[in-house]
Amino acid sequence: VREAGRRPEPAPAPPVAGEGGARRGHLRALPDPDA
User: Fold this and answer.
1) Region entry Disordered: which residue ranges (predicted)?
2) Which residues contact 26 (CB under 8 A, 6 or more apart)?
């Protein structure tokens, strides 16, 4: 019960956000394939 109530460390969250930001940056920097 304790483990369930205790929230998981915020470690997985930062990596995901960082990857998303990096990917967005790369996509913006690279020319749009559709364009």
Assistant:
1) 1-35
2) none
For 21, the 3-state DSSP assignment is: helix
Distance CA 6, CA 1 (A): 8
- Residue given tokens 């749009």 in the structure block: 32
CA distance 16 to 22: 10
pLDDT tens digits for 6-33? 766 655 555 555 555 555 555 555 565 6
- Distance from C-alpha of 17 to C-alpha of 14, rounded to nearest angstrom: 5
